[in-house]
Design a protein that fits this description.
single chain, about 30% helix, about 290 residues, six-stranded parallel beta sheet, about 15% strand
Length: about 290
């Protein structure tokens, strides 16, 4: 696989941004424009020519009580959602959730005001706040930051009473592998640092897809939701469905060990193998 140096990238397109060398937590939150895992890839690896959906026709055995893949379809009560990180993923999610009945607070190193203003110009109204205030006001906190930055946010803030959503894919600097796996995952490492249930979700969705209607070839894009806390998982599934996804119950948080490699495989299809970012993995049942 080609060697990818995120520090060498500075492409001014929506999918790409710079991952600064040795950045501070705040600068990582603000500057890392995300492609689904919080890192950037040089534009030569992007090809918009190919479209498709990465699918598997073989159904995986369910480990939860529900006998079907279908996630609960009922809508959740209106919730306050904090999104930490205003890169392409953070802003994209804020735009999508901001069109629902849920309240959205967007935060970054500048307090989120600039990012919120850009969304308002696009017709979506969200609030802005500093990180601590955004977390305090929220019921659900989405860490739309690179893995290492998410660890710092988790260490330095109080999440008691919140639901924490991790969407990172912990890729290495050169995109040759994941930093963690097999016996743990990014989500599980974050869970060690917060006094709150952690949910894995949204890590297989490219940032560019948030600009559309969250469908590909007439199908809703799937997102896979894993957590050891049944209530937290149900609320995030409902939130995802409200936003326009086809949310799937992916079992316990330990299954993030498999969802993160799936996210990395999606990145490989999109960039290294030239399929572009108009793709998403899906499980199809007969």
């Amino acid at each position: 696989m080609p060697s990818l140096s995120a520090a060498a990238v500075n492409e001014p397109v929506s999918a790409v941004a710079t991952k600064a060398r040795n950045p501070s937590t705040k600068s990582m939150i603000h500057h890392c424009e995300q492609i689904g895992e919080g890192y950037s890839i040089p534009s030569p690896f992007y090809s918009a020519a190919a479209r498709g959906i990465f699918r598997s026709s073989k159904e995986t055995k369910r480990q939860q009580r529900r006998p079907r893949w279908d996630a609960p379809k009922q809508r959740t009560n209106t919730m306050n959602i904090a999104i930490i990180g205003s890169g392409n993923i953070g802003s994209g999610l804020a735009s999508a959730i901001g069109k629902t009945s849920h309240g959205v607070v967007l935060s970054d190193e500048k307090g989120g005001a600039e990012a919120a203003a850009k969304l308002k110009e696009a017709g979506v109204t969200v609030q802005a706040a500093d990180v601590a205030t955004a977390i305090k006001q929220a019921e659900v906190v989405i860490l739309a930051t690179p893995y290492n930055a998410s660890l710092e946010v988790a260490k330095n803030n109080d999440f008691k009473g919140k639901i924490v959503v991790d969407l990172s894919n912990p890729v290495t600097e050169d995109f040759s592998a994941l930093q963690v796996g097999h016996t743990t995952s990014a989500a599980e490492e974050i869970a060690k640092l917060v006094d709150a249930p952690v949910v894995k979700a949204f890590n297989t969705v490219f940032a560019q897809l948030y600009a559309g209607d969250l469908t590909l070839d007439g199908r809703k894009i799937q997102t896979f939701v894993a957590s050891d806390d049944a209530d937290a998982k149900a609320r995030v599934i409902a939130l995802a469905n409200d936003t326009g996804f086809d949310a799937r119950d992916a079992g316990g948080l330990g299954n993030a060990r498999y969802l993160e490699p799936l996210g990395y495989m999606n990145i490989s299809f999109g960039y290294m193998l030239g399929q572009g970012t108009n793709i998403a993995p899906a499980w199809i049942a007969a």
